[in-house]
Amino acid sequence: MSSKPTAETRRTVQRRDRYRCAMCDRETGSHWSGDSIHHREPRSHPFDRLHQPENLLQLCGSGTTGCHGWVHAHPKRAYQLGYLVHTGKDPATIPVYYRTGGWQQLNADGTRTPAEPPSDQPDYIPDIKETKKGTQE
Fold this sequence. Notes:
alpha+beta, two-stranded antiparallel sheet
């Protein structure tokens, strides 16, 4: 298994996400923190579709900065919003919340389609980084 997605897969994810951060909708590459391809099920838990579009998101920042950093610093909330997927779960079955577009299902062919939110989440989330209590977790 390769250590990162192919250039073609990266371009597929970037096009699907419109060259914008899935969380904050910033144009990627235009912000000080740069951008990265985030693995929803972490690379530390390899599986056969690790580097496929349904497991990847375009986020601003790195693993420690921007929205990518926020995901890793707030795993509980990131799992609720589909930015992280628990080991053994199929990322293609876990919807992701996009700031523009709401809940989306990421497909193996590199597309995304509107999805129902998980039963414990609202349809619309005004501030992705806030919990119901009004704090960041």
